[in-house]
Amino acid sequence: PVNLTFSLSVQYGSSGPQYVSIQAISASEIVDTKLYIPVTFSTCPPPKISMSNPSSQLTTYPIKAITSEIINIEAILTVPDCLLSVPNEKLWTLYSIDLDTTQTLGPISLSQELSSKTLRLGLPANFLSPGPYKATCTACFTPPQGVPYIVSESAYIIVVPPPLLVQFDVGNPISKTIDLSINEICLKPEVYSLDPAMNNVNVPQGIGSWIWYCRQVDEELSGKLILPKPPGYQYNAYYTGCFGDGPGVIDTNNGTLCFTTENFRINKTYEVTVIGSKPPKRIGKATMQLLTTNEVAPIFTIRHVFDHWNKINFFQ
Questions:
Q1: Could you give the CA distance from residue 261 to residue 268 in angstroms, rounded to a whole number?
Q2: Which domains can be identified in the chain, with CATH numbers?
């Protein structure tokens, strides 16, 4: 081959369907394919088929899809005038594959509705498990006389599970008001975060390896390790970040973070970000702003005295 292109001239002695098998061999594997060649005396050119997303025809640029979403794949068929009136059939096939070698591992059964005789394949949500696939659209034109024209093209697909839904609370709030009159703040993403692929919120979601960041909204994050301070801690006069010693990465990988409200200052806006992960390489992220206030109602102490006019005076 020259520039990965191999040219071969062949002369056939008669018309009819012909096949050419191609095989490539390396030290570790063998890959092969077969080409259909209609040999005919007709001057009518064959139809052409391609994918509406041409890059998906290459294994290096597969369609990226999420298991929980509908997957639509569409082919484009160009038919010469001489075949416009010729009956034709279209068929979709779907295989799981080894993406490195493109070798098929097994067929995926398509119902008659899914493999309908159209140029569009629509796969329902959750139809495919995570992994690589090859969807092939084949069109066959059968002239009344002569050799059938068969053309096909494939699109490669990578199906991945949905991202983890990491959240600090139900509904994934983006902000929360913190009353500094309470003693402790607890953030529990491990309790409220979900893996949509599990379809069951009543079982452990398997999300772990939590990474936490914290800063005040007008500060830049840094890679500095920080920790909440215990009750009674004596802070420096120059208070920055969330715990007095600057913004950064909270030194914990737990899914719950509790600390005393003494770490925060009143009328400030803190921003906490948490990233949860799950094998093999799934992650989710949530960010919430904590707005600090002190909503304790003022406490009044009332006392009374009697003056010499026997009137009652009230003092606050």
A1: 12
A2: 45-160 (2.60.40.10), 175-293 (2.60.40)
